[in-house]
Amino acid sequence: MTQRTPPKLATWLLTRLCTARRAESLIGDLHEQFAAGRSEGWYWRQVLVALAQSARQAVRVHALSFVGAITAGWIVMFAWFALNMSMTGSHVYAFEFVYRTLGIANGETAWTVIYWFTAVLRVIFFAFGAWLTVRLHRAHPYAVAIALIGSLYLVRLVPWRTYAALEPMAMAIVHSTTALAGLFIGAAWAIVQEKRRGLADTA
Known about the structure:
203 residues; mainly alpha; 0% strand; elongated; 77% helix
């Protein structure tokens, strides 16, 4: 008889978002009951309840650190917003640099270069913001990274300018892709560093 396998995503969330000791004991109990005939729906409900309880406890114990880490990440991202506004503002320093230093005389080409330059900067700044967020809240690296990435929709509420280098739909895709890519890269970088540090400590 083939042994039933519990939902892998639910187990993954449990191991990443709950404290290690609690997750280990809970997973053992859930696997036993699932193997005894419990449904996948039951398994998911138990996992979601455990995640909610863990989140409530984390907020109670680490709320200040959690909020501070998210705030630090947003400060870095706002630094990009400020730089972007300066580069595309009334003084157009970036345009003067591209025109004089790079020798690009065509206005449309110059603004397109600036657009892609700010897109690359967005990846770099957002990656650093996510990295800093995770490093500041090491107790729950996955949870704080997910919270920061989940708050990305706030980008739409932040006033900033850009040159219409592409079609609106294409620009929206570029903006979302570069922002998400930066956050994922930074968060993954910090989490890998934490895992390596943990392995080095236990070695």
